[in-house]
């Protein structure tokens, strides 16, 4: 019977264990811990992520002290370390929340207190939900709900003035970072000199460097031109790729447009250069455009890289593999908590596409409420619809008018609300200033054992309650110091 | 000015590009594709995930045919390939949806049509949300909202009869698979013979083998004893680990209890054996208990591995590193679409814990609606509360009564609803039957070019509309054939 088996197994095991205990010691593994800094995955250890680093931990401590009534020269901490509009007090878009609430609790479809257009959106999404459910409680297809991918395709087509979009190339994701990590995962291969190299701008948003470290790819820095409003300089791209070829296989170029943390909007001329660079040097392009709806300065407008490619003709467009990423977390809606997002991946080898779908299916599906939120972002109330006025009052914007001013921008919040006025005035000003180059005498810094940017950010936090992140977290030329 | 820079950069690039084009050809990389099956990440290529594999694709095709009015011997496809209770027609728990809807659209807190206890839960969650928001639209802490982690700790403590739980060891996740992947990520290291080995039961739920492939760890199979109701046999564990030491460093043991796909509930004696195995051989334990609320057979009850360890005394308990995983997707609530989950990680080296928090912070936070859903799962309506009756009517269960029958179980749905009666009668019956060992003459199988289990599942699908998955997707002894 089972009992006997248990007993004899126990005896059997006792012998085994002693033997193992010795072996284990010989391997020099700690008797008490399997998992230590020494034994853990070195690629994970190498990951850095400043936007939630030491400054942010300090900010949390100060917030707790304020709650405990400890007096400070300020009454609240302004967490400008990360683009989190709602945490900064932005009110949500009513229509978006109505649609997601209706999808969550469909009994509300009978409630007179919800507008008809919100109900129509919700009913359409529920119809698209899995199996018998007509309900957000079931897994969706791993690629995301069909009707939402169709809405995303329509949104992109409108944004790009008619450039075709195939819904089968749209994948809903758990925020943009999830999509970026999965595409990068496909691309990482090779050992030593043939290991996949990934070119990222410096300064960059650190999820790129983090994903590169985690996957053991090779990070290739190309430096943006601070003297020229953080412009992309192709000579620098050229230097970076040629140097990198000595120690890796450069395969991927990441473009962050609008720039994060720089706030730079690429001009057409610069993107044409990138196009040459891609079509003649064969790079897989990562296009981060999560701030495409945050273009606010007069005269600046977002032009998608894909659109420029397309307009340059098939000899450029047809051969370029590219993945572009968007998110519900930024833009006018700033819905960070829902972890919604999408990516478009074009000209992907069909066999690789099957591999991508398989990879996504292991995580089953993106959160369905986040998918619903994404749908409202790309399919907001239209003029003439019941909720349109309310939507515009909430700070929503019309699709196609992404060039118009909106004050819900990462830069504004990241600079702290009191700087808003300057920013609204600013045109091509940097979102990544360097006020700390000459502010502190070196001996004072040495005394605190911190680099100038970290010291500046710590002091700013302690004295004003404004939490910004040192430039070191985003990358900066040696000897220069910034904050975001 | 910028225009001039653009021009000169363009010229500069032209030279570069030609040179590159040649180099690229020399590297033998396809002129048209950077990313191909040949160049892609081989670890991703190695991933297998049957529960969304060819059978499921076929099921989707048949569903479309039914929609088009094509006649079949059945009127609907029963997707029994994956535990998705809502897709199988289960109604959601009203209380859970009310709380999540209230968190999504707090204006509803003023609505008389929502019960007070649901409003109290929602207000508490909103209070715990980030920054100024009191709103699910802001990122939460990467580890999850404090108040929900506290509720999880109370739930686990109650389930384990008072075994202490520290909320700081609780991490909210994007479903269980996200937690499993992240902890495994920490553990993978070493090259060749010292590469991390992970012991998994065969049959297993394929997210384990998928995560192992993706991370390039070494999969070590230990076979469950089919003749003994898929019991865990320590002699088999012993064989597996000793054999594995020749080609890797076995560091991790995964226990799936209740078993998936076997439906087996471990008995105490078996878990004591596992305890010896852990404390004397130093393994990091992965405990998958997502079906802990699905124990329905008379006389069977779920006992947590941690509780058994604890009761055996500090010499066992204090040294064992273990991570246990739970999810909103299974259990009586079956909320798959919200991607909610949590893990408890105990006795983790403090330095490694900091690394884990950093790793989680790169993905920012789990979806907040899923966190709210998780809160209701661990903190459901209590006797005397307004929503309690409705909750029980919905099929909810009282915490602590996890031994009582509930018919919302993976096994029932995975076997197709018409088999429910047999299953409810069944006591220690397997959830992973092998009816196909001798059913088909070999020549017939050869004619179809499929292994017997795949052939059986395809035929079952085409003739009855029931979609089950071949045993090969979960692992099975050579020459045996099963389905789930």
From TrEMBL, chains A, B:
GO MF, one example: pyridoxal phosphate binding
Record bears the keyword Transferase: yes
Keywords on record: Aminotransferase, Pyridoxal phosphate, Transferase
Coiled-coil ranges (or none): none
Pathway: Amino-acid degradation; L-alanine degradation via transaminase pathway; pyruvate from L-alanine: step 1/1
Cofactor section: pyridoxal 5'-phosphate
Subunit (UniProt): Homodimer.
PANTHER family for the chain: ALANINE AMINOTRANSFERASE, ALANINE AMINOTRANSFERASE 2
Protein name: alanine transaminase
Record organism: Latimeria chalumnae (Coelacanth)
Gene expressing this chain: GPT2
């Amino acid at each position: 019977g089972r009992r006997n088996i248990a007993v004899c197994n126990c005896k059997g095991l006792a012998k085994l264990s002693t033997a193992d205990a010795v072996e284990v010691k010989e391997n020099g593994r700690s008797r008490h811990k399997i998992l230590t800094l020494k034994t853990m995955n070195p690629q994970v250890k190498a990951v850095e992520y400043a936007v939630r680093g030491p400054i942010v931990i300090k900010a949390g401590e100060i917030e707790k002290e304020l709650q405990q009534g400890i007096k400070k020269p300020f009454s609240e901490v302004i967490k400008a370390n990360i683009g989190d509009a709602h945490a900064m007090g932005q009110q949500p878009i009513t229509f978006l929340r109505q649609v997601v609430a209706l999808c969550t609790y469909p009994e509300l479809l009978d409630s007179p207190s919800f507008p008809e257009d919100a109900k129509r959106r919700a009913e359409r999404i529920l119809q698209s939900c899995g199996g018998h459910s007509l309900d957000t409680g079931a897994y969706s297809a791993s690629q995301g709900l069909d009707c939402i991918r169709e809405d995303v395709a329509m949104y992109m087509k409108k944004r790009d003035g008619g450039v075709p979009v195939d819904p089968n190339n749209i994948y809903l994701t758990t925020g943009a970072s999830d999509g970026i990590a999965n595409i990068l995962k496909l691309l990482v291969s090779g050992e030593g000199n043939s290991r996949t190299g990934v070119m990222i701008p410096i300064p960059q948003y650190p999820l790129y460097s983090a994903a590169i470290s985690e996957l053991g790819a090779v990070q290739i820095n190309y430096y943006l031109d601070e003297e020229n409003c953080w412009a992309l300089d192709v000579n620098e791209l050229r230097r970076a790729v040629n140097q990198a070829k000595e120690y890796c296989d450069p395969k991927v170029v990441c473009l962050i447009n609008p720039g994060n943390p720089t706030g730079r909007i690429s001009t057409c001329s610069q993107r044409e250069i990138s196009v040459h660079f891609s079509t003649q040097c064969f790079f897989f392009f990562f296009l981060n455009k999560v701030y495409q709806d945050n273009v606010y300065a007069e005269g600046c407008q977002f032009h998608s890289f894909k659109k420029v490619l397309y307009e340059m003709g098939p000899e450029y467009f047809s051969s370029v593999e590219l993945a572009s990423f968007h998110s519900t977390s930024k833009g006018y809606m700033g819905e960070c908590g829902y972890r919604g997002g999408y990516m478009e991946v074009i000209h992907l080898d069909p066999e690789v596409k099957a591999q991508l779908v398989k990879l996504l299916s292991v995580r089953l599906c993106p959160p369905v409420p986040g998918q619903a939120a994404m749908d409202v972002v790309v399919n907001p109330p239209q003029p003439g619809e019941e909720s349109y006025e309310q939507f515009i009052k909430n700070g929503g914007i019309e699709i196609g008018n992404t060039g118009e001013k909106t004050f819900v921008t990462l830069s504004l919040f990241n600079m702290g609300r009191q700087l808003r006025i300057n920013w609204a005035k600013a045109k091509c000003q940097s979102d990544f200033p360097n006020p700390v180059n000459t502010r502190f005498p070196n001996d004072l810094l040495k005394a605190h054992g911190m680099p100038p940017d970290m010291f500046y950010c710590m002091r700013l936090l302690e004295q004003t309650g404004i939490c910004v992140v040192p430039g070191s977290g985003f990358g900066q030329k040696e000897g220069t110091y910034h904050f975001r």
